[in-house]
Structure formats: structure tokens, C-alpha cells
């Protein structure tokens, strides 16, 4: 094992051990930690800083308890299932972009424009390297990002005003903020959760019913497992070496990471 490989494995172990309760095992053969940093994530009710870790095959994030030492609520997104959309700044949410996945989509914001571009560029480069020689899945359905609670004071379907008793809800299919009366229906949205019936608004309920037959046909085709299955065991050279020799030029920095977006680290 080379010095760079040892440094990479050590840092991955540190990230893995920093999550408590423990999350998914992160130290796996051919996995490389490319970069890390703190980004602001738009949640349903508020914006919150999260720790993000970009690997060559997955994107991991979690809530910060003690910076660089303790995280919780680990979430893992395979890079093969990610789509990025650049977004314009608004008055109080700068340097943002949208991460779309089949199960969940959300807005992120970086402290500076330079850091935003670094994240977007490196995610796309890692994804391109991961899928090299493969045909991307053109049939992926991406979840809609939820409209934040504070963005609307009225139901986006019937326009009734929200009150303490007439609470806000979200349609899982279109992401609209809706009242209870407009979202009493439940539907199965396979790319979000194939096992649960999810809250949907009336127009989306009709759409879901119409799409049920075609969705069943699509998901009857066997799909692969996690991102690690994209690597074969009989590669002539390790994924680590291939990655280091690519345009990403990994480990040129003394830190061993391609980029690191938080100066307090």
C-alpha cells in the first residue's frame, strides 16, 4: 500500500468513526475520499449546516454535533444516481445549487461562489469517472425538491390560508406546500419509497394512478445493487491508481484531498 493510499484509508476511517450512532461502513476497497466541507442545506422548516464528504462513488452528509469530530444522522447518496442543477442566487440564499436523487432532492449553498463551483465540478468529475464506459440510466425519476414552509402562506392547490389548525403539508410527488384537505390521498411513488404509501395532492394522486402500470413494468427489470458493485474484482489495476491518474489529479495537495472547503478545518 502506497503512502497516499494509507493516508486515504486513514482519513476514511476517521470520517466513519466520527458518525455516532454509526452509519454505513465507509471504508471499502477502491473507495477514495476526494473532498469534504460544510454546506448549508435547505430543510423543510429551516436552513441547517451539514458536513459533506465526497467520495469517488458516493456523497455522504450528516448533522454536525462537534465540528470535525462528531456527526449524526448519516445519509449516503450513490453518485451514479445524482443530477445537479445550478441555481441563481436569491436575496438571502447565495451560491446555491440543487441536488436531485430518486428518493430526495434538496438545495445546497456554499460560503462562496468558488466553493460552489468546486463542489459541482468534483461531483460531476467523480460521476463521470465512475460511469466511464457505461450507459447512464436514462429512465431515472428524480424526486421533486420540497417548497420550504415559509415560502407560502396559502395552500398551493386551493389557496386557503394556513393557520395553527390548518397546518402545512407537502405533496411527496410535486413538492408543493398544501393543506390537509388537498393531500388526503396516498400513493406509492416507487423511486422515493416502493414500500410506503406517501402523501400526495389531488392532481398528483390522479397522475400516480395513471402511471402505475408503466412503473410496474419498469421496475420489473432487475437492477444492480449499491455503488460499490460498479467495481469489478479483476480490474488490471486498482481503482485508486486509475483515479489518481485521471484529470482529477487526486492527492496533489499535502492534505491528501482534492479540495476542502472549510478554512476552520
TrEMBL record:
Residues 149-209 form the FYVE-type domain. Gene3D superfamilies: Pleckstrin-homology domain (PH domain)/Phosphotyrosine-binding domain (PTB) (2.30.29.30), Zinc/RING finger domain, C3HC4 (zinc finger) (3.30.40.10). It comes from the Eukaryota. Coiled coil: none annotated. It holds the Pfam family FYVE. Keywords: Metal-binding, Zinc, Zinc-finger. GO terms for cellular component: early endosome. SMART domains: FYVE (SM00064), PH (SM00233). One of its GO terms (molecular function) is zinc ion binding. Residues 32-128 form the PH domain. GO terms for biological process: endosome organization; endosome to lysosome transport. This is Pleckstrin homology and FYVE domain containing 1.
Amino acid at each position: 500500500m502506497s503512502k497516499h493510499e494509507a493516508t486515504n484509508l486513514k482519513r476514511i476511517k476517521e470520517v466513519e468513526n466520527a458518525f455516532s450512532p454509526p452509519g454505513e461502513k465507509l471504508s471499502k476497497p477502491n473507495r477514495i475520499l476526494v473532498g469534504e466541507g460544510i454546506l448549508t442545506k435547505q430543510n423543510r422548516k429551516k436552513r441547517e449546516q451539514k458536513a459533506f464528504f465526497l467520495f469517488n462513488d458516493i456523497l455522504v452528509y450528516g448533522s454536525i454535533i462537534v465540528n470535525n469530530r462528531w456527526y449524526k444522522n448519516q445519509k449516503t447518496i450513490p453518485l451514479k444516481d445524482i443530477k445537479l442543477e445550478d441555481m441563481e442566487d436569491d436575496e438571502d440564499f447565495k451560491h446555491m445549487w440543487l441536488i436531485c436523487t430518486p428518493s430526495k432532492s434538496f438545495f445546497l449553498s456554499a460560503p462562496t461562489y468558488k466553493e460552489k463551483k468546486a463542489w459541482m465540478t468534483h461531483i460531476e468529475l467523480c460521476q463521470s469517472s465512475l460511469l466511464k464506459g457505461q450507459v447512464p440510466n436514462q429512465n431515472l425519476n428524480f424526486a421533486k425538491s420540497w417548497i420550504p414552509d415559509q415560502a407560502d402562506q396559502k395552500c398551493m392547490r386551493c389557496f386557503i390560508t394556513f393557520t395553527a389548525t390548518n397546518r402545512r403539508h407537502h405533496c411527496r410527488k410535486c413538492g408543493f406546500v398544501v393543506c390537509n384537505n388537498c393531500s388526503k390521498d396516498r400513493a406509492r411513488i416507487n423511486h422515493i419509497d416502493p414500500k410506503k404509501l406517501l402523501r400526495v395532492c389531488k392532481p398528483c394522486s390522479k397522475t400516480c394512478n395513471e402511471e402505475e402500470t408503466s412503473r410496474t413494468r419498469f421496475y420489473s427489470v432487475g437492477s444492480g445493487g449499491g455503488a460499490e458493485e460498479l467495481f469489478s474484482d479483476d480490474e488490471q489495476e486498482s481503482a485508486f491508481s486509475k483515479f489518481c491518474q485521471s484529470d482529477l489529479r487526486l492527492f496533489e495537495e499535502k492534505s491528501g484531498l482534492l479540495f476542502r472547503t472549510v478554512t476552520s478545518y
